[in-house]
Amino acid sequence: QVQLQESGPGLVKPSETLSLTCTVSGGSISSYYWGWIRQPPGKGLEWIGYIYYIGSTHYNPSLESRVTIFIDKSKNQFSLKLSSVTAADTAVYYCARLAFDDYVDYWGQGNLVTVSS
Amino acid sequence: SSELTQDPAVSVALGQTVRITCQGDSLRTYYASWYQQKPGQAPIFVIYGKNNRPSGIPDRFSGSSSGDTASLTITGAQAEDEADYYCHSRDSSGYHLVFGGGTKLTVL
Fold first, then answer.
1. How far apart, in Å, are the Cα atoms of A97 and each of A15, A105, B83?
2. CB count, 10 Å around CB of A27?
3. Nearest residue to B19 (alpha-carbon basis) of B57, B60, B79
4. What's the angle, vertex CA A19, arms to CA A63 and CA A84, rounded to 5?
5. Triad B98, A98, A6: Cα angle to 5°
6. Do A102 and B30 touch (CB under 8 A)?
7. What pLDDT digit, counting tens, does each position of B21-30 carry?
8. Contact B48/B65 with Cβ under 8 angstroms?
9. Smallest Cα–Cα separation from B73: which of B55, B54, B98, B47?
10. Which residues of B touch A107 (CB under 8 A)?
11. What would the pLDDT profile of B55-100 be if each residue is shown by its tens digit?
12. B39, B78, B42: which is closest to B58 by C-alpha?
């Protein structure tokens, strides 16, 4: 059974960079797409972006200038960096596995990140 | 705003049938997948592809599509089905993945 677990700080200061890592267990990261989805409090789900295990990436156009997703196959992990954060970036951040038919079959439990000074 | 449009809220009497819809031009070309999210929990997928249910999802959940609208139907809704439901597919360009705005289902 594949499991995903996010890790990273729960509080980030405005203008700084949000960094999260997702550790994949129960399966190899060397296949599938791996991505990040966020959900502001009380709101809906939003794609941030995803990465294929060979390193090709795809980002949400509204966030593309601030987002980097990268993968570490040796650790079975992938990571998110979101720069120049503001209060609008406060959200639960989920890591997820994206199957080839465009559906998300595994989700992490979510990591609430609050942007505040 | 999302390119996949859902009704914000729908209600259904216990044991009755409810249809949750998702509208978008891209749905003429791409399948939608559907996710159930209960308060404080990560979403889980309940329907993918033409009408496929993952292991463990009750057969009262089914999916369909017609024209620019995809539907999730719950036949004989149960109290535990009360949740937010999100559709998911590609946007009208076909290049980006998007979620619908979500539908809050209340089981009366």
1. 29, 6, 22
2. 15
3. B60
4. 45
5. 100
6. yes
7. 999 999 999 9
8. no
9. B47
10. 42-44
11. 999 999 999 999 999 999 999 999 999 999 999 999 988 889 999 9
12. B78
Two tokens, residue A31: 């296949």
Mapping DSSP to helix (H, G, I), strand (E, B) and coil, where does residue B25 land? helix
Q: What are phi and psi of A11, to 5 degrees?
A: -135, 130
Question: Mind listing the pLDDT tens digit for each residue in A54-113?
Answer: 989 999 999 999 999 999 999 999 999 999 999 999 999 999 999 988 999 999 999 999
How many CB contacts within 8 angstroms connect chain A with chain B?
A: 54
Can you tell me the distance from the alpha carbon of A64 to that of B10, in angstroms, rounded to the nearest whole number? 34
pLDDT tops 60 at residue A9: yes
Q: Which of A47, A60, A107 sits opposite B42 (nearest CB)?
A: A107
CA distances from B10 to A69, B6, B7, B95, B106 (A): 36, 10, 7, 30, 6
User: How far A58 CA sits from the closest chain B CA (Å)?
Assistant: 8
Which DSSP string do the residues of A49-69 spell out, in sequence order? EEEETTS-EEE-TTTGGGEEE
